[in-house]
Specification:
The protein is 29% helix and 26% strand. The protein has helices spanning 15-25, 65-81, 110-121, 150-160, 175-185, 228-239, 258-264, 293-304; strands at residues 6-10, 32-36, 42-46, 54-58, 86-91, 125-129, 144-147, 165-169, 189-195, 204-209, 216-224, 244-252, 267-273, 287-290, 323-324. The strands form 3 sheets. An 8-stranded mixed β-sheet has the order 10-9-8-11-12-13-14-15, with helices on both faces. Strands 1-4-5-6-7 form a 5-stranded parallel β-sheet, with helices on both faces. Strands 2-3 form a two-stranded antiparallel ribbon.
Length: 326
């Protein structure tokens, strides 16, 4: 049942997901006008009263990252100045998360800067899906609720009835994520050891650690950007005798030439969520998209009611059907 004290507002990055969250809650998306001035500056006008209400602003800071981030900051400021009782920034995909530490001298920690900007803009709380690294929690001085997508992705793979699955982490850094996914499926874990000198460079496979021969491999990652890592990992697994290769990633950035690489690769199917909108030109028969609207909607209800969000991870799930590429 809809709660009159909740309002959902959407930026321009992912309005379909915001509508899906609203439908789950039985609420329309709030009236908001996001526009551009002649010089390119972003303008926002909240077209209804939010005084004293619990407001959730939905905006993935996906490409174009600078535009969507600035838009979110301005929306938060507008809601705060309109006297909302609480403003929760719902950021299904948290941009700049990969810039979470200094690798070389004189580099910024941009993820921390973004966290500071969100707090300064007036956000009281953050709700996000599959942060790139756990240390990002420590960047915020306000509450942050983190939703792992492994439940809905795992349920999808369970529905496929794959024989002898093995979950594979495409790199050492993703082992914790892959291990949790493997535990959810009750499957063994394998790890790919790779070497890459700079971001977005195709890596060199050094070792595959674990038994993959004559098994169905499920590559698990949080982000697919240019697709080089997954394509190379799939080829390495095929050489080591897997029966088939599937892949799943929460956040489908899909920068060129990602889809071309996936199409040429031995990957049978790539499963992603709608944390980032997937345009029609990137949808192919190899791509399946699962919605996180129900997951986020349930979390919104729990935050509003001051109930535990972490309990959601063990609760019965609302299965969202996958939509395959056309």
């Amino acid at each position: 049942m809809a709660d009159a004290q909740i309002r959902i507002f959407s930026g321009t990055s992912n309005p379909d997901l915001a509508r899906g969250i609203g439908e789950y809650l039985g609420l329309p998306v709030g009236a908001i006008n996001v526009f551009r001035f002649a010089d390119g500056e972003i303008g926002v006008r909240i077209e209804e009263s939010v005084r004293g209400l619990d407001v959730f602003a939905v905006q993935s800071t996906c490409p174009p990252a600078n535009e969507t981030l600035m838009e979110l900051l301005i929306i938060i400021d507008a809601l705060r100045r309109a006297s909302a009782a609480r403003v929760t920034a719902v950021i299904p995909y948290f941009g700049y998360a990969r810039q979470d530490r200094k690798i070389k001298p004189r580099e910024p920690i941009s993820a921390k800067l973004v966290a500071n900007m969100l707090t300064t803009a007036g956000a009281d709380r953050i709700l996000t899906v599959d942060l790139h690294t756990g240390q990002l929690w420590g960047f915020f001085d306000i509450p942050l609720d983190h939703l792992p997508a492994r439940m809905i992705l795992g349920d999808y793979f369970r529905s496929l009835g794959l024989e002898h699955p093995v979950v594979v982490s495409p790199d050492i850094g993703g082992v914790k994520r892959a291990r949790e996914f493997a535990q959810y499926l009750g499957a063994p874990l394998a790890i790919i050891d790779k070497r890459r000198d700079r971001p977005n460079q195709v890596a060199e496979i050094v070792h595959v650690i674990g038994k993959v021969y004559r098994r169905t491999a499920i590559l698990v990652d949080d982000i697919i950007d240019t697709g080089g890592t997954l394509a190379l990992a799939a080829e390495a697994l095929v050489k080591r005798g897997v029966v088939a290769v599937y892949a799943c990633c929460t956040h489908a950035i899909l920068s060129p030439p990602a889809m071309a690489r996936i199409q040429r690769s031995p990957i049978t199917q790539l499963v992603v969520t709608d944390s980032i909108p997937v345009p029609p030109d990137k949808r192919t028969p190899k791509l399946a998209v699962i919605s996180v609207a129900g997951l986020i909607g349930e979390a919104v209800q729990r935050i509003h009611a001051e109930r535990s969000v972490s309990e959601l991870f063990g609760a019965p799930r609302v299965m969202q059907p996958a939509t395959e590429g056309e």
